[in-house]
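To fix ideas, we reproduce below a protein record of this kind.
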Amino acid sequence: MAGVRLTFAATVTPRAAVAPTVRSGMADPAPQAPAAPSRLRWVRAAVTVCVVALAVLLLAPMLGSSDHPVGPGSVSIGFWPTARGHTTLGLPPLGQASAPTHRGPVEVRMELRSLDVPQLIGSDGRVDASALRSSIEADTRGALTAAVVRFGLVAALVGAVAAAVLPWRRKRTVVLGAVGGGLLAVVLAASALPGFDSRRFDELTYEGPVDAGRQMMASISTTEGPLDRRVSALTNRLAGLYSATLTQSIADSEGEVVILHISDLHLNPIGAQLARRLATSFDVDAVVDTGDTTSFGSSFEGVYADALADFPVPYLYVAGNHDSRPNRRAIKATPGITALHNRVVDVEGVTIAGFDDPVITTANPVPKEQRKATEYAAAPAVAQLLEREQPDVLAVHNPVILRDLVGKVPLAIVGHGHRSRLGARNGTVVWEVGSTGATGLGSLLVENDLPAGAALLRFRDGELVAIDDLEVVGTAGDLQIRRRIITDEIRQGDNADFIGDEADEGIGPAADPGDG
């Protein structure tokens, strides 16, 4: 047809682009994606999780602590990861005390920041304890909730920043870092709730200056019956912190007889000064020294007793195996010191019997078995003393002598081992105190590098109710107190495994058990 042009277009495939087809009678294999990129993604994800978690656990506790109004003051609340869960109460500069209140791996740290004193004492100039607790309890629950929220938000920010610095960061990675960090923080804080036991505040451990120890422990150890609710338990302790800022009184110890137990001074003059300072700071009723006041048996050591002269309270003494006969006589002749050997002394209604160690180890070596036999041979004389006087407490130096004496006295206190240990057998509670002289000049004969130890024995109606295990570390005199409440379960225990077996410590001939 005129005027009409027909165009035919043909599609031509280049020869090089056509792949030959080979038929072998078998199905073609399915294509496989390379595994390396998939593994890389998992590695990156694992590293991201670890980096975020580590950053949150290290930085969020430091940045996430926050101050909250609680009653008439302000309290800082924070959450810190730890191997063993506990609650810490801090009162600068008096120190801090902690208790193993829960099983979760978190420390709940509460520290008093400020206090409105006029609001606390009221118009009549006195602290209304009931109103104080009500005021604190009304605010504590909200403060804890706000602290958890603040901790979670800070952890989310830390998690986001940690994810953002990674070289393979993406927007999704940063978001997941924030969400994961926040969740980790909330879970950590919430782990303090399951199993929270307010009764564990009876096992307080205090750390701080010596002079402040009494005030701090007295204030936060007060209990008024069982406190089953978490908030009530914290309320009670926070009220104690507030009260501790105002008064030096130890109202909670009214009715208690407090005896300072020291031992193993080993010629250390700092130990003698420490004992005097503790006796004054904690307002004790008496001091009981369970021996090894000296070390080598030399006659010149007797002058060390001058450091113990004229104590502010009665000083009761039983000799240890490092105290030679001349040194025993010098110590017992010192003004203010009462020899407790083979007699009983009454301290505000608490009767204490004592017996000098029957072995003196300051001259020639004596085999271990012979030392044990000497201790055991003296036990009948001690048993007669206990049967005749029926004391509340027996004070001896070496626990080996107690093998045949447990069950004859409610409480036995000893030294010798340079460590603090508590046990019971046959109804007798056995307490071993650490070295008050930190082994002193006797470190040439025994182990050294130990802190100075002592203990406050607290009695009510003649019965031991608590032991404050004191430990002074360093030249600054930092004090640590571990409170041990003596329960019926402890009294009925059978775990005083450190009695009845002589330690490889002393040397020397046997002394006359009747040596006074």
